[in-house]
Write a structure and sequence with these properties.
The chain is of the alpha/beta class. It has 11 helices and 8 strands. The chain has an 8-stranded parallel β-barrel with strand order 1-2-3-4-5-6-7-8, surrounded by 7 helices. β3, α3 and β4 form a beta-alpha-beta unit. α1 runs parallel beside α11. The radius of gyration is 17 Å and the shape is globular. The chain starts with 5 loop residues before the first strand and ends with a helix. About 45% of the residues are buried. The model has no long low-confidence stretch (mean pLDDT about 95). The chain binds phosphoenolpyruvate. Phosphoenolpyruvate binds next to β8.
């Protein structure tokens, strides 16, 4: 099965409103010709509504960095799935390592967010990955399987098509250190095997598993050429339209 490459740019807590809108327009202009790649941009919450109209008519989809799993209530600063969706958002990250490490999102919190997002009609990109210490202690496979088991608990057969996964070794995020293509390929194989066992071969063949962790134009092609690496979740290099666009081009070329 050929999976459509998927490249998403996580802008994190960067940019002011006018810069964010400008970057979105630049990304549309520079990547819009790549109709064979799913492209996502993931700005901060306040910029979503301003950016959504800039993406209309383009193949780009708008993502959120997180959501509150609750539906309503006295939850100051919380933003729920329906609110996000009503701002023009198509997908949301869940369980980014910075959410896990800084804000304490554990697997059960991630699972609640996964269900809140799916129930509201959002696609989900669940992020998983091991710390350096866990890799050094040969725990990588166990850690990612635990994150998948906890984070995707009770996802039903008809919901899988709305889920993608991002394998992001924590030690490679924002550090300039990238997993070697062998390390990434092996981790992706573990993730896909887990999906096959948990869901089905059909789901495992279809699900997109992105690699994230210091992906740059210089290393994207090598990573994306590997079996089972279906795209990239890009942090730092997504803040510049040229470098993000070069990674999208690498993704398009990886399947041509
Ligand atoms: C990320 O934030 O998901 C990420 C992969 O960041 P960077 O590309 O900067 O390592």
């Amino acid at each position: 099965m050929t999976r459509r490459p998927y490249v998403a740019g996580n802008w994190k807590m960067n940019l002011a409103a006018s810069d964010a809108v400008r970057l979105a327009s630049d990304v549309v202009r520079k990547t819009g010709r790549h109709r064979s790649v799913d492209i996502g941009i993931v700005p901060s919450f306040p910029f979503l509504m301003g950016i959504a109209p800039r993406l209309e008519g383009s193949p780009l989809k708008l993502g959120a960095q997180d959501l509150d799993a609750h539906e309503f209530g006295a939850r100051t600063s919380g933003v729920n799935a329906a609110q996000i969706r009503s701002a023009g958002v198509v997908f949301t990250l869940v369980g980014h390592s910075e959410r896990r490490a800084i804000f304490g999102d554990d697997d059960s919190a991630c699972n609640a967010k996964v269900h809140a997002a799916l129930n509201a009609g959002l696609e989900v990109m669940l992020c998983i990955g091991e710390t350096e210490m866990q890799r050094d202690q040969n725990q990588t496979q166990q850690v990612i399987e635990n994150q998948l088991t906890g984070g995707l608990k009770d996802v039903s057969d008809d919901q899988w098509e709305h889920v993608s996964l991002a394998y992001e070794p924590v030690w490679a995020i924002g550090t300039g250190r990238t997993a070697t293509p062998d390390q990434a390929e092996q981790a992706h194989a573990w993730v896909r095997a887990w999906v096959e066992q948990r869901a089905s071969k059909r789901v495992a063949d279809a699900i997109r598993i992105l690699y994230g962790g210091s992906v740059k134009p210089a290393n994207a092609a090598e990573l994306l050429a590997r079996k089972g690496i279906d795209g990239a979740l890009v942090g730092g290099a997504s803040l510049e339209a040229d470098s993000f666009s070069a990674i999208v081009t690498a993704a398009a070329n990886s399947r041509s």
